[in-house]
Amino acid sequence: MIIPPAADRLFSSDKKQKEIANALYREVSGMPLICPHTHINPNLFVDPETTLGSPVDVFILPDHYIYRMLYSQGIPLETLGLHSNNSNEITVEQDHRKIWQCFADHFYLFRATPTGGWLTHELGEVFGVTCKLNSDNAQDIYDKVASQLALAEFQPRALYKHFNIEILCTTDAAEDSLEAHKTLRATEWDGKILPTFRPDGVTNLESEGWSKKISTLSQVSGVFIHDFKSFIRALENQREYFKQMGATATDHAVEQPTTVRLSPTEIEAIFKRALHNNLQSADAAVFTAHMLVEMARMSIEDGLVMQLHAGALRNYNPLIYQRFGSDCGADIPVRVDFTRNLQPLLSEYGNDPRLTLILFTVDDTTYSRELAPLAGHFPSVRLGPPWWFYDSPNGMKRFLDSVVETAGIYNTVGFNDDTRAFPSIPARHDTWRRVCCCWLADQVSRAVLEFEDAQDMAYDLSYRLPISAYKLKVNHG
Amino acid sequence: MIIPPAADRLFSSDKKQKEIANALYREVSGMPLICPHTHINPNLFVDPETTLGSPVDVFILPDHYIYRMLYSQGIPLETLGLHSNNSNEITVEQDHRKIWQCFADHFYLFRATPTGGWLTHELGEVFGVTCKLNSDNAQDIYDKVASQLALAEFQPRALYKHFNIEILCTTDAAEDSLEAHKTLRATEWDGKILPTFRPDGVTNLESEGWSKKISTLSQVSGVFIHDFKSFIRALENQREYFKQMGATATDHAVEQPTTVRLSPTEIEAIFKRALHNNLQSADAAVFTAHMLVEMARMSIEDGLVMQLHAGALRNYNPLIYQRFGSDCGADIPVRVDFTRNLQPLLSEYGNDPRLTLILFTVDDTTYSRELAPLAGHFPSVRLGPPWWFYDSPNGMKRFLDSVVETAGIYNTVGFNDDTRAFPSIPARHDTWRRVCCCWLADQVSRAVLEFEDAQDMAYDLSYRLPISAYKLKVNHG
Amino acid sequence: MIIPPAADRLFSSDKKQKEIANALYREVSGMPLICPHTHINPNLFVDPETTLGSPVDVFILPDHYIYRMLYSQGIPLETLGLHSNNSNEITVEQDHRKIWQCFADHFYLFRATPTGGWLTHELGEVFGVTCKLNSDNAQDIYDKVASQLALAEFQPRALYKHFNIEILCTTDAAEDSLEAHKTLRATEWDGKILPTFRPDGVTNLESEGWSKKISTLSQVSGVFIHDFKSFIRALENQREYFKQMGATATDHAVEQPTTVRLSPTEIEAIFKRALHNNLQSADAAVFTAHMLVEMARMSIEDGLVMQLHAGALRNYNPLIYQRFGSDCGADIPVRVDFTRNLQPLLSEYGNDPRLTLILFTVDDTTYSRELAPLAGHFPSVRLGPPWWFYDSPNGMKRFLDSVVETAGIYNTVGFNDDTRAFPSIPARHDTWRRVCCCWLADQVSRAVLEFEDAQDMAYDLSYRLPISAYKLKVNHG
Fold first, then answer.
1. C365 contacts in B (CB within 8 Å)?
2. Which CATH architecture has domain A6-45+164-469?
3. CB contact under 8 A, A317 and C373
4. In this structure, are residues C183 and C208 in contact, taking their beta carbons and an 8 Å threshold?
């Protein structure tokens, strides 16, 4: 039995299709990486001497995709080195070698998962580890990876270049003063790290520490926030500041993408109640819904692209939330209704081509039913790539199969890696490019697409679409 | 690299599968076209000298599948020649050559879409244009298509024969006097154009101009409508008239397929409020739900097949609706609940084999969850083919994959082209036949189906099922 | 044209993939069958002389998968030999040869359905009937099957061995005294037939004959049920009794998986109202929701695995329910919300690795959106195999494609046949094993999985996972 070489990874085993896929892939595999939406910490790049730490610091601690899977099989998060709020009660493992061993012992859990694919790619392509991680070779591989992480060429700035990243956008709170970005712009390093304006902490009136965030926003924006109008002015000022620091987009995460236009009196009354710590039960939800409409209005005025991520019920597991906080793999998706919820916003601003509204979902039933028809009609609507649990070969295939027939590829925005795990970036982009080439090759092989068109489309999906959708400035392209 | 010939379009690149698909396709590709549900204007066929107009009249103006895609990329509908209500304000492009050029400049938007496939097929098979439309050849192709459209063999009656259409059903308002159909039946032309009874305009109490439609219905039916009973009598009379004119089916479009049986007193009270222009908030919804049950009752009595299209939120974009009216590509699907909503109707009439209720959806999550189990149990329920956004290769594959395992193919009704664009009919049927043959060939190649069974099924899906489900009379079959 | 041999059934027609699939399948096709969830009557095995009856008794009468399909095409259930409550009114067909003829006449309805595949496999592999059933050969095949059914080697105990079943779990009411299981444990026969604790009849306060079931539960448990506390004690006792009789699991079927923790006062008040036949409108729903939480608590204490089947609207067709009762193919699925509904239960017990909660759905939109993320995070959650309408090649492929990328295979539990039709068991397991091998082979052929990993996974999916998830004791494994 002949097992196919890794060079053909993800391509069809059909000879003709694979040949076409490879022909398409050869032209895009080396294109620079455009990363318009990540959760990478910009401080990684500020000090040229920063290192990434131990293999556990690189692979496990920042990546809830990995430790949630281990947790699902009964391994306590403390055993993986995660710090909880009640550290008196439970011992957190400090020995990274032991954590790595536990990870290796359970590496089989990631079989047939995208995380498994990324890990294999990362170990192989970034660290030269080509044998499969297991209980026996765990410590040797730890040594090999650890020794490389200590080298200059594995420092974040070097990896950024080595990964061939052209632009990387971070995600930053609205009230952030963007110190890291300021410093980066003042250095001579030519990596392009741009901020993204994420105001959820202040537009969600129930977010933890809301009042404190409002004071910080007052400070950084230079607008004393004492009513809704000054709140809006502060946000507008701060958006302007983000733009000056290179931002081209905002980002908003909600459970349901509810939108509504309240009267000035109504919205002012809610905001005042929030300032007086006197919220009524529906206030927060309605306020967020109104703020999405306001944000669309601001986007039309200042040109920032608006991203909307909908559908995750955050902090679903109270035990994990209380002990470990947010973003620990305990967010669970729910059904989303885009059609009805977005109608107020789209009725008001959806026909304005100055608005770019990029929609993301973790409810893939909305792909063909709602998202593609919306993107296939409104000049403002574009579809973000498959997000989170769907950032996977099957997730991508479902997305392309469900969306393109109605919206075409030109109402999509190519790829986002959306990662917290810096060294996984090349693996994620490579998966997308391979899946796209495979998907296009299938259509070429069935005489649905001409090869020349598929070549254009592979290039667009891999490189051109994120640049144009996010209004990014690049040297070539 | 060998690119497959168009003759194998849509078939698998696997050699064995493709061979089987071709063997199946050869037997059905030439079968006459049965078109039991279209939005073709019957007047096209009344005057033998009617011509289809310019290439823009043929390809763009009647087809919201096309102009919504162009609109989604920022091209105003006026630029495409669509007339709006405020023509003072905005200039509508009059020059069809300019519109065609704009279309050609943006033809790449349709890559990998079914519309793109139909256009290619239509240009190639109907008009002999085999090179791909682009900015450079736009005017030449315009000339070529325009000159053919002026010829006798491109008049609607000639194309009907050339397309090998055996039966074509139009969609006609309940209060329509069917003048075109009357004239057609009096001519010697032997094309079979049949009406379909669509009463939405009078069963939806909030439809624009409802009162006027009620008076027209009074006139054409010969029943003065002054209460609910006379309304029912008028509908029954008019259904009888449609039957005399050849109709075999009715059609109903609703957002949710809510059904309910009200008491005679309740329904009478609502209808009276409608007549007195004094509707209460829930009246219209409840009335429509009751009328679906009434229509099922009438279908059992007069034998007309009942079609139900559910799930589109109509006129979603108020700006487009106000300026351009309905059916402009601005209807967006929503989640549909068939199971709970249809229970009152099915409890009352679902076990009666005299009823044929054909269900259509734009929420494909209902295929395997609700529609297939309903069709796989109730003697009355049949499933319409993939509708609208799902009238596409992937949409068809999803439909067949999701529905047949539970309901079999014999609870489906073959294909509907459902088109407003007359010359796209052969392309649409050909896509369906190819996708079915490919889907069957896959199962034959995996030893799930015997080839002889697949031959039968290809014939059934292509030709026999729509005839039997819609109770059509044909010469062969 | 070369038609593939049945030995390659369900495998890809791609040569390389098929070779890999066969290599995987060869190693698992002969593994013993683990049947942790069935609706087989344990009495089949009590008397060694029991026979299965006529071909109609074997194939048609116990299997609503089959007669619902015939009913959907207008064949009355009475024609198929089913007894209704108003037998005066309608004649029930008594002649099994006539019933068999009707079945054979309509055998084409099952083309491309899993039921068709099982029937073909069953007729061929169990009864040696290799030609396709049709109108002409119906009586000959009846003779052949009937004569074999009279032989000793076609008695249930013999077939159990012949089928290579290692463990078979039945489904038994909470108030069942398990007489058949008691007798079986006392005999020398070494087949392993285990009960499963299914308390729906007593936890659903609106179930028919609830009071009677409560008295029976009092009797069998030895606890006089006069309040909620004694009800819980009775259930706990009876669970203990089921465990002594070999049970390792419970099973719960609900429309929505709503869970809630009521206060002791509230739950006591509801239960008292039930005892006094004085239920308020929301009582039953809330009570069931509370009982699911109680059952999770008991599972943690006594170690019984908890199965939850959600999403079927039972007895949807009132005519069928009134005449023929439950489980006649007239249950229709509805949308399910697992995420929100399970949160109370999972917040309380979901982090406890002593709980195993196996989730089943007939709403496949929850696979990737809700079920996989839940199973991929909570230590207690596992995913049951595709259920009911989804127990089919496409259903399995959708399940694996949608679930594994997020949850891995190790948060699934392999296969359940869930059948009422005893001789269909091998066919169902064979379908699962083939589909899994095909699915794995596809990934091996695309260099996503290593062949050695796929070998392990094929073995896990076919054999090891149900054993470990259901805490079964086997001789090998």
1. 365, 369
2. Alpha-Beta Barrel (3.20)
3. no
4. no
| Burial tier of B211 (Cβ tally within 10 Å: 0-12, 13-18, 19+) | exposed
Kindly calculate the radius of gyration of chain C based on its CA atoms and give it in whole angstroms. 23
Q: What are phi and psi of C254, to 5 degrees?
A: -140, 160
Instruction: Note the pLDDT tens digit of each residue in C288-324.
Output: 999 999 999 999 999 999 999 999 999 999 999 999 9
CATH 3.20.20.140 residue ranges of chain C are 6-45+164-469
Give contacts of A71 with chain C, Cβ < 8 Å. Answer: 377, 379
User: What topology does CATH give the domain B6-49+156-469?
Assistant: TIM Barrel (3.20.20)
List chain A residues with pLDDT less than 70.
1-3, 87-90, 476-477
Pick from B374, B344, B340: which is nearest to B359 by CA? B374
Q: Distance between CA atoms of B329 and B317, rounded to whole angstroms? A: 9
Among residues 30-69 of chain A, which lie with CB inside 8 Å of chain C?
A: 68-69
CATH 1.10.2020.10 spans which residues of chain C? Answer: 51-154
**pLDDT score for C173:** 98
Q: Which of C2, C13, C317 would you mutate first to test chain B, the one with the most B CBs within 10 A?
A: C13
What contacts A212, CB < 8 A, 6 or more positions away? Answer: none
Measured distance CA(C423)–CA(C409) in Å, rounded = 28
Question: Which chain B residue has the Cα nearest residue A373?
Answer: B332
pLDDT, tens only, C79-91:
999 998 876 666 8
Per cent of chain A over pLDDT 70 is: 98
Q: How much is the pLDDT for A477?
A: 43
The verdict on a CB contact (< 8 Å) between B113 and A340 is no
List of residues 6+ apart from A218 with CB closer than 8 A: A224, A225, A234
Which of B8, B109, B395 lies at the smallest CB-CB distance from A405?
A: B395
Give the best residue of C347, C369, C412 to mutate against chain A (max A CB count within 10 A).
Answer: C369
* Percent of chain A scoring above 90 in pLDDT: 95
Q: Which positions 357-416 of A are in contact with B (Cβ < 8 Å)?
A: 365, 368-370, 372-379, 381, 401-402, 404-411
Identify the chains in contact with C, defined as 3+ C-beta pairs within 8 A: A, B
pLDDT the model gives residue A90:
66
**Neighboring chain C residues of B375 at a CB cutoff of 8 Å:** 72
Find, in chain C, the residue whose alpha carbon is nearest to that of A397. C401
Find tokens 């139909």 and name the residue: B118
A251: closest CA among A65, A416, A429? A416
DSSP state of B18: H
Minimum-distance CB partner of B343 among C3, C316, C320: C316
Three-state DSSP at B338 gives helix
- A367 dihedral zone (left: phi>0; alpha: psi -120 to 50; beta): alpha
Asked if A393's CB is within 8 angstroms of C448's CB, the reply is yes
- Chain C CB contacts of B343 under 8 Å are 316
Q: Which residues of chain C from 127 to 146 reach within 8 Å of chain B, CB to CB?
A: 132
Distances (CA, A) of C72 to B259, B377, B378, B381, C464: 21, 5, 5, 8, 39
| Subunits adjacent to chain A (3 or more Cβ pairs under 8 Å) | B, C
pLDDT, mean of residues C247-258: 98
Residue C457 contacts A where some CB pair is shorter than 8 Å: yes
Residue C113's pLDDT is 98
Contact check, Cβ <8 Å, A14/B14: yes
For a pLDDT cut of 90, what percent of chain C falls above it?
A: 95
Architecture of the domain defined by B51-154: Orthogonal Bundle (1.10)
pLDDT at site B85 = 81
Checking if the pLDDT of B2 tops 70, the result is no
